[in-house]
Design brief:
By secondary structure, the protein is of the alpha/beta class. The chain is built from nine helices and twelve strands. The radius of gyration is 26 Å and the shape is elongated. The termini are far apart. Residues 10-30 have low confidence and may be disordered.
């Protein structure tokens, strides 16, 4: 009889322990944060990070509304999700930390670098492409990079940027002037101190419009980069994968290029005169 009681108490204890384990597991699941996908679908809101800086994002001083190709992509994605777009202002320096903290669901025009990929996720599919170009004076030929590799050619770059490093290696014979930013470099270009100003082509398009001088050229061989969209790293990859499929659809159907052209038109720039953000079309641009 004593042995029977001991076995019954042991079985009861094991049963209670199992119940406690299941309860703890259920509690842990209940306390786990909702995935980004579940949050968007349940709240009906898509939150995107925005940073002042054209052509990716800009804030209309009169209305407070955000524009730019990143905002237009957010509007399109929100529409396809049946959600309301919410803009959350941040900085490029805080872009990754903001994603990790769940302050916003996506940061468009965030390049996928190895360092960033240690902390956040990126869709496999790119958002669009931008090329390293030059804003050149009418008397300067820049069909190929070799056309600029001459001592009498003076090229302005923003100090410490990727274009600075690239032209330093690519054009060892050119005269390179380095500036603390693009605005002082543009002033030097306007003053006739530079034959060319080198940076990524969407920014150069804005500088050409601002200065009303020069032509934006993508010298051969074209050196380009893909930009992406960052999302929070989480076990559920539904949001990342849906976003990648959507970005690919926008790009291949030409919707991404139309977003860029909509932005340019809104800023008084003729899209025909601006190199596109689809690399397949660069050879077609004159």
């Amino acid at each position: 009889m004593a042995d029977h009681d001991r076995h019954r108490r042991a079985a009861l204890g094991a049963g209670l322990a199992g119940v406690a384990t299941l309860a703890a597991s259920g509690s842990a699941r209940a306390q786990a944060p909702a995935s980004t996908w579940d949050r968007i679908r349940s709240s009906g809101e898509l939150r995107i990070g925005v940073v002042p800086g054209e052509p990716w994002f800009y804030k209309d001083a009169a209305t407070g509304a955000w524009g730019g190709i990143g905002t237009l992509a957010g509007e399109a994605a929100a529409k396809d999700l049946g959600a309301k777009l919410v803009t959350v202002e941040t900085t490029w320096a805080n872009a990754v930390a903001g994603l990790q903290a769940g302050q916003y669901d996506v940061m468009f025009v965030l390049d996928a670098t190895p360092q960033r990929a240690l902390a956040v996720d990126f869709p496999v599919q790119p958002f669009f492409y931008y090329a390293q170009g030059v804003l050149v004076r009418p008397d300067t030929t820049a069909h190929r990079w070799s056309d600029l590799n001459k001592p009498e050619i003076t090229i302005g770059v923003a100090l410490g940027t990727a274009p600075d490093r690239d032209v330093t290696a690519r054009l060892p014979n050119a005269t390179i002037k380095r500036f603390p930013g693009l605005d002082p470099a543009l002033l030097a270009f306007q003053a006739g101190q530079l034959n060319a100003l080198c940076f990524y082509h969407p920014a150069l398009v804005l500088m050409q419009q601002k200065s009303r001088q020069g032509t934006v050229v993508l010298p051969e061989p074209i050196r380009y980069s893909a930009t992406s969209a960052g999302v929070r790293r989480e076990a559920d990859k539904t949001w990342r994968d849906w976003l990648g499929t959507t970005l690919d659809f926008y790009y291949t159907t030409g919707q991404t290029q139309r977003m860029y052209e909509t932005y340019l038109t809104g800023r008084g720039i003729d899209p025909v005169k601006a190199p596109p953000v689809m690399r397949e079309k660069w050879g077609q641009h004159s």
